Amino acid sequence: MLVLCADLLYTPLEEINEPMLLVEDGRISSISSRSRQEIPRNAIVADFSAHSCFGDTSRAILIPGFLDVHIHGSAGVDVMRAPVGELPNLNRFLATRGVTGYFPTTVAAPLDESCRALERLADAIEAAPSSLRRNPDAAEARPLGVHLEGPFLSHQRRGVHPPQYLIAPTVETFERLWLAARGHVRMMTIAPELCGAPEVIAEAARRNVCVSIGHSDAKLEAARAGVRAGARHATHTFNAMRPLDHRDPGILGEVLTNGGLSADIIADGIHLAPEMVKLFLQAKGFEKSVLITDATAAAGMPEGKYQLGPIEVEVKDGKCTSNGNLAGSVLTMDRAVGNARRFAGWSLQEAVRAATVNAANAVGLEQYGRLAPGVEANIVVLAGNGEIRKTIVRGRVV
């Protein structure tokens, strides 16, 4: 049994002072205050509280591991091109940034190439549990499902997705992608105004895929039709969307005013001005706001050229571009949380919520993004200023 102690714990919906968290067989068995429970005999104790661990006045805070539902890579690894054997490099890097679970995200590419990438990602998702059994000391982020970003995107709002690889949505094409991923598609971005989109949205939603509207030039009614068909989320709000107009609000009018929709943003200060991040967080609130990174293989790497699926991107001055257009980011989730605090004045607990339980709720992962008895012990230890001190994956310290 492992016992974790700290100065504070965010579940993240609740706050517990002087917490004691017990881990057994990789899962949380109980959470309480140290004043209410004695440390079990023969337990291994990891006391992260400031007076015992850090040697300074900074408080230690336990939070759930971050969940990134939109990420193309990091640490030189592109999820569409890397063989399964290279993904552990990505997984270890993400864990050092507090991410314990993620959705590897595709880009538009030749359909055969996309299917081969989905097969490799399915291999990695299915291998994760057995890999843990073979190497119980491994502590790294885990791919939990695939996010299909493309090929069902608007040509007008495609961003850097190559136009020749965009495909009109049909149930038959979705089925081919679904089979290649062996049912591990958990999220899909689609432009709801495209002919055939409502039928594909309905079919994907029937299979419990989180359908997200984005890369879209939709007017208001088309966006609403996508929601009626089963969409429940929005992808990198404001980016690759028809701009908001006060007489013709379009897709953003639906995203920002529909209280039933969750939505995500890239809070790097590059994709959106800080004021727009604040506007988004105010509109979607503490329950429906989700932070993503949209990170590419360039995240955590020096300036230079990298791949984003079939697209070559260049990183300079913190921007990731292709032919002068933004192409993903070099953002990490710990920085996204810090930016939400700085840009919108959110508390640490509120910002953490947008990177954990809100993301999990959006994609239907009920056992993720929260600290509670029975869930996997995926935990991040933060200092009071939000800096990551330790990451614990399934009860194992990174």
Question: Describe it for me?
Answer:
The mean pLDDT is 94. Helix 7 (274-288) crosses helix 8. This protein is 28% helix and 26% strand. The radius of gyration is 21 Å and the shape is globular. Strand 2 and strand 3 form a beta hairpin. It has helices at 87-96, 111-134, 171-180, 197-206, 220-229, 250-257, 274-288, 333-344, 348-354, 357-363, and strands at 2-5, 8-10, 15-17, 19-24, 27-33, 44-47, 60-64, 66-71, 73-74, 77-78, 99-104, 142-143, 146-149, 185-190, 210-213, 233-234, 262-266, 289-292, 304-308, 311-316, 319-322, 325-326, 379-383, 388-393, 396-397. The chain has 10 helices and 25 strands. The chain has 2 domains: 2-62 and 385-397, Urease, subunit C, domain 1 (Roll), CATH 2.30.40; 66-368, Metal-dependent hydrolases (TIM Barrel, Alpha-Beta Barrel), CATH 3.20.20. The two termini are 17 Å apart. With 398 residues, it is an alpha/beta fold.
